[in-house]
Description:
The chain is mostly helical and 418 residues long. The protein is built from 17 helices and five strands.
Amino acid sequence: MGIGVVPMAEAQRQVSIEWLLETADREMYRLKYSASLVDQHCKELQGFRDYCRQNAISFYDVETGIKYFTQRYGISLTDSAVRFTTAQKKTRTTIRFLDDIYVFGYAKRYRDCEYIVPSAYMQPLENYLSYCAKNNGAAGIIRVKRTKLLQFLCFLDRRHIELSNVTASDISDYMSTLFQYSRTTIHVISSVLREFFRYLYVEEILQTDLSVDVPRPKIYAEEDIPETWTPDEIRRLLAEINRNSAVGKRDYAMVLLAAVLGMRAGDICALQFKNIDWHRKLITYTQQKTGKDNTLPLLPSIGEAIIDYLKNGRLDSECSNLFIRHIPPYGPIESESTLSESIKRYMWKAGISVKKRKVAHAMRHTLASTLLQEGIPLTTITNIMGHDTPKTTMGYMKVDLPALRKCALSYGAREGFV
């Protein structure tokens, strides 16, 4: 099922408004939300409570939050073309908060913070992640596994299910709550769960190998074709960045690294001074996702943008990261989503539709496809992208196989963006 498709069972289910609001109150404190976020949710929930009273609404279903938003603001919550105001975004956040409680029975985490589960769940999880690390698991992959498994363990906790008592039916119930995710995301989650259950069985924490009971959707070759960027869109995006401001100088250099070299957002945010070889004009870094080293050319346009930021924009800081936060506390950019959110902001200014793009990551797809069309050998593209095998790179490009047979690296055309 794709995003936004609600299973019939969910579409027909209702929960009382009273239970929903009581659960929302408990979840804010269980997840230790900040005082400001609790205050924001409370104000929004009061408005929602008044709406339900005025309209004699006693039960919540999949349409309740959407109707409330439309009645309050006169626009559709599901319209991707609308640019929401700050107030509308706050209301949307609270509706998503309620929707998650309605679907899952608990609130989910969306930011880079931990799900909170009892220690009885945490010890097996930490042991498993340590096992992964000892077996050459990359930090980025282990981080993904931690997030996906904490989400699953939180589901078990809210249903009072001990890890040793998990059944195939429990797994099925959990997987049914993932309907709002794309098939490829569900594919990742199921892979993580299967590996975890296999480990629990080998370690005799579970008496049955439940890995075989975790469903995984099949991914078809033509499915999930990535949204890419056109050269004109990249130029318009860059033109909207204010290079006279400190933040603009930083963002401009970071976007160039993504658009021209195809670096991942997380790697860009983690880039350090030691990764730049100014004499040899190279950028050498360890990829967070794979743990593999990668080397890319420090092109003139990128080098000049970085120098401009370091000399005229970067704040005084002992932080070893090249790019830092420009609001207290001044230091590393901890979330890779920071770059994507900045890009989205510039996209709105340039009148560029976000569509279903993963924004910064879509630039990697664009680079891979462009290089292939320019006749660059697949093995060379694989090295540029930092992939282990050409098979991974082919998944990025989603192009016809005849193009591979036409198979020297030239970044000249890419530098035409600036």
